[in-house]
Design a protein that fits this description.
The protein is an all-alpha fold. The protein has 6 helices and no strands. The chain is about 85% helix and about 0% strand. The longest helix has about 35 residues.
């Protein structure tokens, strides 16, 4: 039985790997957002900024999807040795390297987006802790 590499042309491999990488990045971002949804809700329950928390909760999946897509778009097939489409498609090993680079960059961007979002939540939760805002209203 022939291997998958023998059945698929380089151009077909390019299309399949390109769209598979996009789909995988989006699915990974959505799954990550779903897994962190409860933690986000618990963190925002302790915040005095409930409205901002609701906006951030709705923006979180879009934030991660955008990060994955930006990581995907940061990879270019054109480099010093591959100047046009025909040269890119002719080199299967290079296509494989680009596929790996897509996955790597998307993961880096997802991690960066999660870190930035975590810092934003930390600042939001540290500005006015819930207990202090209740004490301030009691003193008036």
């Amino acid at each position: 039985m022939p291997s998958w590499g023998e059945l698929v042309t380089n151009e077909q491999y390019l299309y399949v790997s390109y769209f598979s990488a996009i789909a995988l990045g989006i699915v990974l971002a959505v799954v990550t957002a779903a897994l962190l949804r409860r933690s986000h809700h618990q963190a925002m329950a302790a915040s005095a900024f409930k409205q901002v928390g609701a906006v951030l909760k709705r923006a979180f999946p879009a934030w991660l999807i955008l990060a994955a897509l930006l990581g995907f778009a940061s990879v270019s097939y054109i480099d010093c040795n591959h100047h046009n489409y025909a040269q890119v498609v002719a080199d299967r090993k290079y296509l494989f390297e680009c596929s790996r680079l897509h996955a790597s960059r998307m993961l880096y961007c997802l991690v960066g987006a999660l870190m930035a979002y975590t810092m934003m939540l930390t600042v939001l939760l540290c500005i006015v802790p819930r207990g202090q805002s209740d004490r301030r209203s009691e003193n008036k």
